[in-house]
Design a protein that fits this description.
By secondary structure, this protein is an alpha+beta fold. It has one helix and two strands; from the N terminus they run ββα. The chain has a two-stranded antiparallel sheet. The protein binds zinc ion.
């Protein structure tokens, strides 16, 4: 029952396990801050910039 498909995250408000893709906690209606996607996009932009920098240096 601990597979990677059923991801959960701990609610910082009530400390209960909420679904990872839920926008708010189903128990206390705490709204999760949507910061993970932005971090992922920034990481990809950073990687692409490094690759471009390496190509232009060749
Ligand atoms: Zn909660």
């Amino acid at each position: 029952m601990f597979g990677n498909k059923d991801k959960t995250r701990e609610c910082p408000s009530c400390a209960l396990e909420a679904p990872a893709d839920a926008e708010e906690c189903p128990y206390c209606q705490y709204e999760f801050p949507p910061e993970q996607k932005g971090t992922t996009i920034m990481a990809w932009v950073f990687v692409i910039l490094i690759i471009l920098w390496l190509i232009t240096r060749l």
